[in-house]
Amino acid sequence: SYELTQPLSVSVALGQTARITCGGNNIGSKNVHWYQQKPGQAPVLVIYRDSNRPSGIPERFSGSNSGNTATLTISRAQAGDEADYYCQVWDSSTPWVFGGGTKLTVL
Amino acid sequence: EVQLVQSGAEVKKPGESLKISCKGSGYSFTSYWIGWVRQMPGKGLEWMGIIYPGDSDTRYSPSFQGQVTISADKSISTAYLQWSSLKASDTAMYYCARRGDQHFDYWGQGTLVTVSS
Questions:
Q1: Considering just the CA atoms, what is the radius of gyration of chain A in Å?
Q2: If you measure CA to CA, which chain A residue comes closest to B99?
């Protein structure tokens, strides 16, 4: 089955740029989606198909995907961006695969 | 406005059965797949299975095949997740989510299931 690897935690200074990676074998050939989950809340889709933002998601959130790594980038990080972030791909072996999640801390 | 509203928290004993629900509104319920996702305490997201309410076509993750049953009643725009015999290890938050192509675009608020003797 396909596996996705995320760092357990990422820290970013207030107002700086955070980058959260998602590794997978030739992940660049797949569509990657990203979810934000704040404590006690349901996940929210923030990026779909590598780099598309749903309605209502700030332009500060962006995504890229190439080779073996996909990246979620959060510009001008705010305290309200503190959350767990999960990447997800669709794979023919196990259709909906999630990464283990990354805890973002804004310092 | 698309909404998925899940049933409330449950506390059950091992061996008991349970059925939780997810009611969709604000869109054509029969035209979108509904998935179920488990989140164990302090852990990540795991896809369990998915159903197409239009014809009840259902797919399961190998990890959950035979452990749960997913169903839907399109007449009341509701999807279900059920267990016939709960275990302590089923203690988790369960989310339903609407499939938007290869991702999940709308999520329910979650149903906490606690299994304890």
A1: 13
A2: A96
Handedness of CA B84, B90, B94, B96 (dihedral sign): negative
Determine phi and psi for B88, rounding to 5 degrees.
-60, -30
Per-residue pLDDT tens over the stretch A5-39 = 999 999 999 999 999 999 999 999 999 999 999 99
B103 touches chain A (CB under 8 A): yes
Q: What is the DSSP pairing of strand B111-115 with strand B10-12?
A: parallel
Distance of CA A35 to the CA centre of its chain: 6
Find residue B25's DSSP bridge partners.
B3
Query: Which of A91, A55, A53 shows the shortest CA–CA distance to A72?
Result: A53
The answer, for B109 touching chain A at a CB cutoff of 8 Å, is yes
Q: How far is the C-alpha of B4 from the C-alpha of B72, rounded, in Å?
A: 13
- Cα B68 from chain centroid (whole Å): 10
CA distance A69 to A85: 15
pLDDT, tens digit (0-9, with 9 covering 90-100), for B51-110: 999 999 999 999 999 999 999 999 999 999 999 999 999 999 999 999 998 999 999 999
